[in-house]
Amino acid sequence: MTPSPGIAHLPIQKIQDAGIQATIDELAIEEPLEIRLQYGPAADRQERSVSITMRTPGNDTELATGFLYTEGIIPGVTAIDLVSTFTSNSILLSLKTTVPLDLGRLQRHFYTTSSCGVCGKSSLEALKTVCPAPQPGRHWLVTPDIIYDLPDQLRRQQDIFGSTGGLHAAALFDIQGNIISLKEDIGRHNALDKLIGSCLQNDHLPLDKHILLLSGRACFELIQKAAMAGIRVIAAVGAPSSLAVELAQEYNMTLIGFLRDHRFNIYTGSHRVRI
User: Fold this and answer.
1) Which residues contact 160 (CB under 8 A, 6 or more apart)?
2) Candidates 3.10.20.10, 3.30.450.20, 3.40.190.10, 3.10.50.30; CATH matching 31-125
3) b/e per residue, 104-120, with b = 16+ CB within 10 A?
4) Which of 34, 152, 205, 259 is most buried, with most CB under 10 Å away?
5) How far apart are CA 226 and CA 248, in angstroms?
């Protein structure tokens, strides 16, 4: 089996009732990734760093693409001309010379930890301006039985989590509850950026006929990123925040929390769940 780039094997001492045992433990890797952007007309190309995020290595191109899109910096994957990786922890995305860019967004230099993607952003109002205006979604219903089954499918396919117990996941399902894609990362916001970036590269947006499952809690930024991708139904194993509920309500999204042990709470958009 090919070693995963997201797993480190380190010697530890395991303490149990029987005594001390020397063994090897598998840990989720956390390393920085610098996302650099090259832009401007051919005669005046500019380059700058737009983000340093703590992430689990793997799917870095999807992560960078998803980040730039969900931050409103690029309108889509067609804006990108070339992706270059010079080191394992730095990636450069060159935009096409004809792509207009909001330089005001680039003036906000981001540093995001693995626990909080909102850190370093000037205000919650600035976050809200990233999202496009809510659009009417296609009408469809999901049954509780489909929702109940989502976490089990997620756990069966969380490869790195199964080894380390230390990663978040974002998974995409169709409306019949079949899993389509799953991405893992030590940062919950990175996992979702990887997922959305992958969908962008495969021209699958908008995701208005899909279900998003989050392995942890549903925070404001994850709802904002989902809204950028056109997602209408979000389920989370953990709790939502009050701001997450507020944004989901504003964008006519169905937000489900505490999805575990064949139970869940509906916070917004109950009209999409067939009770």
Assistant:
1) 4, 6, 7, 28, 56, 167, 184
2) 3.10.20.10
3) ebeeeebebebeebeee
4) 259
5) 10
Determine which helix (DSSP H) or strand (DSSP E) holds 200, and give its type and residue range.
Answer: helix 188-201
Tens of pLDDT, residues 200-232: 999 999 999 999 999 999 999 899 999 999 999
Angle at 173 (CA atoms; ends 184, 212), nearest 5 degrees: 65
CA atoms of 272 and 41, how far apart (whole Å): 46
Enter the DSSP assignment of 256. E
**Segments making up each domain of the chain, as ranges:** 31-125, 144-272
- State the CATH class of domain 144-272: alpha beta
Strand order in the sheet with 263-268: 179-185, 168-174, 210-214, 233-236, 254-260, 263-268
Please give the C-alpha separations between residue 151 and each of 89, 177, 224, 260, in angstroms, as whole numbers: 32, 11, 22, 7
pTM (2 decimals)? 0.86
- Work out the percent of the chain whose per-residue pLDDT is above 90: 60
Residues 22, 15: contact at Cβ < 8 Å? no
How many other CB atoms sit within 10 Å of the CB of residue 157?
Answer: 14
- Write the pLDDT tens digit of every residue in 21-55: 888 777 778 899 999 999 999 999 999 999 899 99
132 has pLDDT over 80 = no
Is 116 a known active-site residue?
yes
